[in-house]
């Protein structure tokens, strides 16, 4: 029998006579490079593509649902025509108010109509005790600086409103509500009347799908630096 050291020079025979065994030297085993290192270009492209698709699907869920003009499919062309007669007429009908609210959401300016609705509810308060908590909520939500749904008011209107919050009256928000009303009437309302969903209602069709508006992505360009965008999914 040939000496195993001659056949496998990389193996060392233990000098111990009691427990003979073979030791594999470190030089005989080459460790594979760690495969969990930096991702390759193909992996980065896949990640970019999946992130983009996830974001677009999310946006589509928000704007592509049948609720762009909720209940609008049952609105007759005759009713839709009345909405175009005046802004007052649009807001006075529940279906019209709902349709306009959905339209503002596609423009990310729904705080205006929400403030107007809150003011309408505030004026319907049945007692003076109801006014103070409602006034504080409206002020903190829509009017004070950096409010979560701050509406666009001039300095004078904001100051006058702020001064009456401590002892609010039913007329406390009248000036601010009128300002926001005019803003919607002169700016958002004309665009609503030109929008595809509204024009579809006039023609007796179901509400058209609103155009997709992209928001900022949740990742940065640095995440994929040096990788040429490729939107093909493997």
From TrEMBL:
<feature type="domain" description="RGS">
    <location>
        <begin position="86"/>
        <end position="202"/>
    </location>
</feature>
<dbReference type="InterPro" id="IPR036305">
    <property type="entry name" value="RGS_sf"/>
</dbReference>
<protein>
    <submittedName>
        <fullName>RGS18 protein</fullName>
    </submittedName>
</protein>
<dbReference type="InterPro" id="IPR024066">
    <property type="entry name" value="RGS_subdom1/3"/>
</dbReference>
<dbReference type="InterPro" id="IPR044926">
    <property type="entry name" value="RGS_subdomain_2"/>
</dbReference>
<dbReference type="GO" id="GO:0009968">
    <property type="term" value="P:negative regulation of signal transduction"/>
</dbReference>
<dbReference type="Pfam" id="PF00615">
    <property type="entry name" value="RGS"/>
</dbReference>
<keyword id="KW-0734">Signal transduction inhibitor</keyword>
<dbReference type="InterPro" id="IPR016137">
    <property type="entry name" value="RGS"/>
</dbReference>
């Amino acid at each position: 029998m040939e000496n195993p050291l001659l056949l496998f020079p990389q193996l060392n025979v233990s000098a111990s006579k009691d427990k003979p065994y073979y030791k594999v030297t470190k030089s005989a085993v080459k460790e594979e490079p760690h495969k969990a290192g930096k991702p390759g270009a193909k992996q980065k492209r896949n990640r970019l593509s999946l992130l983009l698709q996830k974001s677009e699907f999310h946006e589509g869920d928000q704007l592509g649902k049948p609720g762009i003009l909720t209940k609008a499919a049952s609105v007759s062309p005759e009713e839709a025509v009345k909405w175009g007669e005046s802004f007052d007429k649009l807001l006075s009908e529940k279906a019209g108010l709902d349709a306009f609210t959905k339209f503002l959401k596609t423009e990310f300016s729904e705080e205006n109509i929400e403030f107007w609705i809150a003011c309408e509810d505030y004026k319907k308060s049945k007692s003076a005790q109801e006014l103070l908590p409602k006034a504080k909520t409206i002020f903190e939500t829509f009017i004070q600086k950096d409010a979560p749904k701050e509406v666009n008011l001039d300095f004078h209107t904001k100051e006058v409103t702020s001064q009456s919050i401590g002892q609010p009256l039913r007329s406390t928000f009248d000036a601010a509500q009128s300002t926001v009303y005019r803003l919607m009437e002169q700016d958002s309302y004309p665009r609503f009347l030109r929008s595809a969903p509204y024009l579809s209602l006039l023609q007796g069709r179901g509400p058209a799908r609103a155009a997709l508006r992209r928001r900022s992505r949740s990742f940065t360009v640095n995440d994929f630096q040096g990788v040429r965008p490729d939107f093909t999914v493997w």
